[in-house]
Recover the amino acids of this structure.
């Protein structure tokens, strides 16, 4: 018979062995938290994300593309509407850069048989892509600096960005059968256009800030009018636009007879400073100037001042029948921001038999052609 002491020792030994085994089991199979809670959180987050995407994309023309674009935005349900639109604009910028790279490849790779007209059309597209990127950046800036106060500005630049894509495609209108490389690049351009369209639809949902006082003399699309001008035209520019031409001291003078600094407008534009923040006035004396003039992106805040409609005339005749794209046919093309013009006639003299032809093409911002004739 086992003694009581031996019995106690045996029980203690068995208990120790059992505890040791349990400890080994715990080491071998560590405890794992139940995944139920995490799965629940993921389901809730996914549901919130989907609901937010559906809400933002409601009313867009391309809802599937919209939802796809928003699907990669982290914590979408916690983002403000301007933040969501900015993310869409950023995705659009990436798409534009992809289109630009694609077109550049067609221009540079050997083996692509591009005729002169197609090269011109692709060059047009590259210029328009650059302009589109500027407009998308302007939209982002407006959205991040008080969106409710800049709704009109954002809508304007986004609308221009859409138009650019179709202007690019128009350049292939007179290319041979099938439109050449139009069919190759159009898918990308439509994608960009649809992204911008979705952004525009979302911008319409932003509540505009109410003006502190009623607008006077409303001019739709140009905010309110002060002294006959949109309120974004500065007091100095209003004076320049209203003053007699002989009372303004120009920075440069163009004259056919050689009495000025230059005999051509293009030479005067080339001599103007780049990216100036102050107004630079080019006075163009009476006469007919047979040339195509381009105010490039880096020529900001230029002003053309002539001697009157029908007196100072800028004239050329580029057209699509003679091999130019509609975009490149402009007698005067303005891309630089802040351009002003007064008392000048601009004419494209190609005539109806030459089909598409443009007198003035303007892509810059805050431009005010004033008392100027177009033919």
């Amino acid at each position: 018979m086992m003694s009581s002491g031996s019995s106690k020792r045996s029980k203690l030994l068995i208990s120790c062995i059992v505890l040791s085994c349990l400890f080994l089991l715990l080491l071998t199979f560590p405890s794992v938290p139940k995944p139920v809670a995490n799965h629940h959180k993921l389901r809730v987050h996914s549901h919130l994300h989907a609901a937010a995407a559906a809400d933002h994309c409601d009313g867009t023309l391309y809802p599937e593309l919209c939802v796809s674009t928003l699907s990669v935005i982290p914590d979408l349900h916690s983002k403000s509407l301007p933040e969501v639109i900015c993310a869409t604009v950023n995705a659009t910028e990436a798409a534009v850069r992809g289109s630009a790279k694609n077109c550049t490849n067609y221009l540079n790779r050997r083996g692509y048989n591009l005729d002169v007209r197609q090269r011109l059309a692709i060059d047009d597209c590259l210029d328009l892509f650059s302009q589109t990127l500027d407009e998308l950046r302007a939209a982002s800036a407006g959205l991040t600096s008080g969106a409710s106060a800049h709704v009109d500005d954002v809508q304007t630049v986004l609308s221009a960005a859409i138009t650019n894509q179709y202007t690019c495609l128009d350049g292939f209108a007179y290319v041979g059968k099938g439109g050449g490389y139009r069919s190759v690049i159009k898918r990308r351009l439509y994608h960009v256009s649809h992204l911008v369209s979705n952004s525009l639809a979302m911008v319409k949902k932003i509540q505009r800030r109410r003006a502190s006082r009623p607008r006077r003399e409303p001019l739709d699309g140009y905010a309110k009018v002060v002294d006959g001008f949109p309120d974004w035209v500065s007091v100095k520019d209003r004076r320049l636009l209203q003053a007699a031409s002989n009372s303004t001291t120009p920075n440069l003078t163009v004259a056919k007879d050689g009495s000025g600094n230059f005999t051509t407008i293009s030479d005067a534009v080339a001599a103007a400073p780049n990216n100036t923040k102050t107004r630079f006035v080019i006075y163009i004396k009476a006469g007919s100037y047979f040339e195509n003039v381009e105010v490039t992106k880096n020529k900001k805040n230029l002003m053309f001042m002539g001697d009157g409609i029908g007196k100072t005339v800028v004239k050329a005749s580029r057209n699509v029948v003679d091999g130019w794209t509609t975009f490149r046919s402009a007698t005067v093309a303005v891309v630089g921001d802040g351009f002003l013009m007064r008392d000048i006639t601009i004419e494209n003299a190609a005539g109806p038999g030459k089909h598409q032809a443009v007198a003035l093409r303007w892509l810059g911002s805050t431009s005010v052609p004033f008392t100027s004739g177009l033919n």
Q: What stands out?
A: Residues 211-218, 367-371 have pLDDT under 50 and may be disordered.
